Amino acid sequence: MSQSRDYNQEIKDTDDHKYAYSFDFDVMHPFMLRAFTPFFVSGNLLELGCFKGDFTQRLMGEFEEITCVEASLEAVNIAKSRLGGAPEIIHSRFEDATLSKKYDNIVMTHVLEHLDDPVKTLKRVNDEWLSNNGRFLLACPNANAPSRQIAVKMGLITHNSAVTSAEKEHGHLCTYSLDTLERDAKEAGLKVVHRSGVFFKALANFQWDQLLNTDIVSDDYLDGCYQLGQIYPDLCSSIFLVCEKGEQ
Prior knowledge:
Layout: H1 7-10, H2 22-36, E1 45-48, H3 54-59, E2 66-70, H4 73-83, E3 88-91, E4 103-109, H5 118-129, E5 130-141, H6 146-153, H7 165-169, H8 178-187, E6 191-200, H9 205-212, H10 219-231, E7 236-244
Parallel strand pairs: 1-2, 1-4, 2-3, 4-5
Antiparallel strand pairs: 5-7, 6-7
């Protein structure tokens, strides 16, 4: 993240370009936690990029000691007002953050695609912040999600990994697939021990939001999409890696 960027502006929604959808919070967050939970180890947790604290609130049910680092002061203030004093929330860019301890669990969800130098931050995770027996769970939007591939065929975007105008407005600099995500993790020295995806997704977020306001989609159907995503991770809404400490 560079000094010239306005992180507070990047978290705002507009009428024309909605960035945060009910699908993200009501569907993806619970399934993402379900996908992560088997890989958590006992100990503390560091969340890199807590935004306004929505996913943090879910993590509070799993961990007693949580530290968050967030670059947007506006998001930090919202998260603190919502979550109280339980998680320690540090206002800092990842490049500048000074953390006094190591962490047994580190989570970064839908943040890496915002970073100017993602490998540099991942290297800090490996070299400075992750404990020797810790786990790092890294999730990003998936370039190969069917919803994006359909958009390519419709002529709405030029290729799977394109960054849309709405994504650019909200600070996305790239769109990862499993191979490029693993490439950056390995370049940073991390040891990738598992790779998967969360939720098979053939519709865009705004389409999901419209469906979720009807009785067309049942909880069983949503669960089926999650389970299918475990078989076809490259066709999921989000992809994720489980990493352990590697070479420095």
